[in-house]
Design goal:
eight-stranded mixed beta sheet; about 35% helix; Rossmann fold; about 250 residues
C-alpha cells in the first residue's frame, strides 16, 4: 500500500517549501538536496513507501542503521522539507510514485520545488530557467529566473510530478539548470542552491563547502551517474528540447 510514514514527531510547519531530489542527469537535484539536508541539519522526518519504489535497504559507512531508499527530511526552523532518494525510479513506477508523493504534498499544503538538469556542453556559469504550475510561476520573476528559451519537456519522476501538479492546478515551481550530461555536476547543483532555492525559500546556504568537495563528489557518484545512463534517457529526470519528442 502506498503511504508516507512519519519517523518521529509531527513537524509544526505552515506552507512549507519542499525541495525534490530524485536522481537525474548530472545528479543536480540529488546533489543540491543532499547538500541542503546537510547544511540545514535537517532531521529524518518520514519514509516514503509508494507503489513501485525499489524494496531495498540503504545503509551508510560506519552506521548500522538501515533506511528506505526514498525519505523526507525537515527543518522546522526554516520551514523546509526535502525529498531525498538514493535510487533511480523505473519508468513503470513514475506515475504511481508521482501520485503518491503529490497526494502527501497537497495534504501538507507544501509548495514544491522540482529540480531538473538540461544536458549541454556549456561554458561558464550554468544558466537556470524556471517553469511553474498553478499560480507559482510569477515568483520566479521576483528572483530573476527567466522562462525557458525554447520549447521543452521534463521527463522521469520529476516530469511526472510536474505533470501531476499541472493536472491539479496546484502551485509548484520547476527549476531547469544547464549541466554535464555524462558526470555528476556539483557546479550546476550549487547554482540551483545559490540563485534559486535559497531566495525562493528565504535561506542562507553555504555553497563553498559543496564546491570544495567537487572532486570527491564526482568520484563517489560517477558510478551512480552511470547507472542513470544505463536505465535510459526516457526514465531519467532531465529537461530536453520538445523537438526530440516529435
Amino acid at each position: 500500500m502506498s503511504r508516507v510514514r512519519l519517523q518521529g514527531a509531527q513537524a509544526d510547519l505552515e506552507n512549507a517549501t519542499l525541495v525534490e531530489g530524485f536522481p537525474g542527469i548530472g545528479l543536480v537535484g540529488k546533489i543540491a538536496t543532499d547538500h541542503l539536508i546537510e547544511e540545514l541539519d535537517m532531521r529524518y522526518y518520514a519514509s516514503v513507501h509508494c507503489e513501485g519504489l525499489p524494496r531495498v535497504g540503504v545503509y551508510r559507512e560506519g552506521d548500522r542503521t538501515v533506511q528506505p531508499p526514498v525519505r523526507l527530511h525537515v527543518s522546522e526552523e526554516h520551514n523546509v522539507l526535502a525529498l531525498q532518494s538514493d535510487t533511480p525510479i523505473s519508468a513503470s513506477a513514475v506515475d504511481t510514485v508521482a501520485d503518491c508523493v503529490t497526494s502527501w504534498i497537497v495534504d501538507q499544503d507544501a509548495r514544491p520545488i522540482y529540480l531538473s538538469g538540461r544536458p549541454t556542453e556549456r561554458e561558464g556559469t550554468p544558466t537556470i530557467s524556471g517553469i511553474g504550475t498553478g499560480n507559482a510561476g510569477d515568483e520566479l520573476d521576483e528572483i530573476g529566473i527567466d522562462p525557458p528559451s525554447e520549447n521543452g519537456v521534463v521527463s522521469g519522476p520529476t516530469g511526472a510530478l510536474i505533470n501531476r501538479a499541472a493536472q491539479l492546478d496546484y502551485d509548484s515551481l520547476g527549476l531547469i539548470v544547464e549541466c554535464n550530461p555524462n558526470f555528476p555536476d556539483p557546479e550546476a547543483a550549487s547554482a540551483l542552491l545559490e540563485k534559486a532555492i535559497a531566495p525562493i525559500a528565504n535561506l542562507s546556504i553555504d555553497i563553498e563547502a559543496l564546491l570544495e568537495r567537487d572532486e570527491e563528489i564526482r568520484e563517489h557518484r560517477e558510478q551512480f551517474a552511470q547507472r542513470m545512463q544505463e536505465i535510459g534517457q526516457d526514465e531519467s529526470t532531465q529537461a530536453r528540447p520538445l523537438r526530440m519528442y516529435q
